[in-house]
Amino acid sequence: MAFSAVARALCLAVAFASTLSQGHPTSPKLVHERRDVVHGDWVKGARADAKTPLTLRIGLKQRNLERAEEFMNAVSHPRSETYGKFWSAQQVVDMFAPSDDAIAETKAWLLSEGVTADRISHSAGRNWIKVSSTVGEAETLLDAVYSVYENEDGAVLVACESYSLPTNVRGFVDLVTPTIQLEEREAVTRRSVVEKRDSFPPGFKKLPPWAHHPKPGADSLKNCSEVTTPACLRALYDIPPKGSAVKGNSYGIVEFAPQSYNQEDLNGFFSVYTNGNKVPNNTAPIFNGIDGGYLSPEGGSGVRGESNLDLCYAMALTYPQNVTLYQVGDSVAWNPATNNNFLDAIDGSYCSFQGGDDPVWDAVYPHDASTPGAYTGQPQCGVYNATKVISVSYGSNEGARPASYRARECAEYLKLGLMGVTVMFSSGDTGVAGLRGQCVKPDGSYTPVAADYGQFNPMFPGSCPWVTSVGGSALPAGGRVNDREVASYNFPTGGGFSNLFNLPSYQNSAVKSYYAHHNPGYNASVYNNTQKARGFPDVALNSQNYVTGIDGGFQLFSGTSASSPTFGAMITLINGERLKIGKGPVGFINPVLYAHPEVFTDITEGHNSGCGTQGFAAVKGWDPVTGLGAPNYEKLKKVFLALP
Length: 644
Ligand SMILES: *[C@@H]1O[C@H](CO)[C@@H](O)[C@H](O)[C@H]1NC(C)=O
Ligand SMILES: *[C@@H]1O[C@H](CO)[C@@H](O)[C@H](O)[C@H]1NC(C)=O
Ligand SMILES: *[C@@H]1O[C@H](CO)[C@@H](O)[C@H](O)[C@H]1NC(C)=O
Ligand SMILES: *[C@@H]1O[C@H](CO)[C@@H](O)[C@H](O)[C@H]1NC(C)=O
Ligand SMILES: *[C@@H]1O[C@H](CO)[C@@H](O)[C@H](O)[C@H]1NC(C)=O
Ligand SMILES: *[C@@H]1O[C@H](CO)[C@@H](O)[C@H](O)[C@H]1NC(C)=O
Fold this sequence. Notes:
Ca(2+) binds at residues 602-603, 621, 623. This protein is of the alpha/beta class and 644 residues long. The chain has 16 helices and 26 strands. Strand 23 (546-550) and strand 24 form a beta hairpin. Helix 2 runs parallel beside helix 12 (403-418), helix 9 packs across helix 10 (301-318) and helix 10 (301-318) packs parallel to helix 14 (560-580).
């Protein structure tokens, strides 16, 4: 990815040859964004050459986001008179798109500084203004100093430490790229899924074809604390034995390259773990490929693990409901697709010029054809409808990207909620620490892997208040299926408090009550203890030892990667029940969940350790380990069926 900033800039050198203007500032400039630390392993080098071509992209502020909470409550709070009256895509665009003034003022400023009109353009959704420029001109426009940064992998990019904008333009602008952004890209699960190879059923692995597998106790409930199966999950949460194919219902699972599923592995799983609702051989998800999305021919848990796990359970628990697979990104590993590339595909108004919301952090298309497997088409904008429920088992450290980037992505989840889509994310698999156990040092940078000091490191998008964050629970070791679950212990489940997002009103009394009755025992230098920050997760479900078809056999997977698709399946079944009686989908569910803690089995044992601490403890009521607890399907269904 980092290479691309330079490579792309070089291509543009042919496109224009403008001399630098001297700049005639219209109004005084003020610092707009500043970076205090360098994350990851970037090292600052020499000053960038003024003549280096640079394409500046100015992300304009959307309007009315300050009313997010009011809008969301209106359609998703159980006591709202307009519950379930979701918005159309056009209503969303009309409410949030940047104003004509924002575009006019920004263009006027650029023209006044000598940028010629032919070098300025704006994106279809009006969110971005693009300026074909040079490092030297950008330094003048933004009162910035650009340097060349390099990392250990030899990636190179141009960035500055701060930049300024005229006072009359600042109010219209979220961010300008490339400026202070230094990237660090990771997925929750690509590296951190806890895995027990070949552990179940013993000796099965090398026994294809699947049809010849014996089926010892595949539907038995006797060993659910050691091996989680569809039968165990149905028993744990009162999930009905069968789903139904309801017209208009849909459920989407998102996977990012190089992860992709293998049909034979799914076949093997479906043939053994039937649980009275056998998914027929060769049943496949509806394939929605995005920006070169493909099914990898490779095996191994690093490629198939996440995808096979998500689809085995999403499909087994909802069949005959169709499940949609959003398979995102091509095989160009240095410029991998992100959540924003996925969001572009289901919301054309979000798309920027080259795909992704942010050309520094997201994959930018077309990819150069010289890389094998490159997607050389245009970025896919608005090519698919969003499914009614979307589950994603990927995430990253909240602080690894600028606050403005996080805010824009989070606002997209708000919009999906307003349109009636339920979006859920795994809460993370490293407790209060971030990816690979990293914590935050006093200067804001990250500690080495699994450090025993530092500040807690919340995970995004679970820390965004407009998604449902799904944590992990487990049956106690040696426990029976009807025992009360505890916080997951094969791995510490992700949870804590955001450093960026405010406490949403739906969570207000739950968090207040948590602090009123419990002292987590850490001060402000350890985590955001202001009691004004979004706490996560919202719920927790079993997330240990999910038996999964993979590489011609079975393996057990643990992680919140497992619990999110399971909860997604439950909400999909509930949507089906609502559609059958002429009601709409449930959309953003958090306000309903927090208004009905009685539909959950509270989890009060365990903790989510990290950063050399025990993390937080699971306690009575909501907590930043297991949220409201584990949902009971029948009770949850009753609540949602009673709503308009
Ligand atoms: C339960 O599953 C574990 C893990 O596969 C296995 O070692 C054990 O024998 C199983 N126990 C029973 C009673 O089936
Ligand atoms: C599933 O279908 C494939 C392809 O038709 C076949 O090779 C395989 O044997 C079938 N598996 C089962 C378990 O029936
Ligand atoms: C499920 O998907 C298949 C393939 O796209 C389609 O033919 C079928 O009509 C779908 N079923 C329902 C109930 O939507
Ligand atoms: C999206 O949904 C609309 C309205 O239901 C429908 O007309 C359209 O064909 C769908 N588009 C795709 C790509 O499925
Ligand atoms: C704590 O969260 C609040 C609300 O999101 C935020 O305004 C504040 O800056 C955060 N404090 C720290 C130290 O991160
Ligand atoms: C916070 O607690 C840590 C130990 O947990 C201590 O080292 C530090 O001095 C405390 N900071 C403040 C501001 O009290």
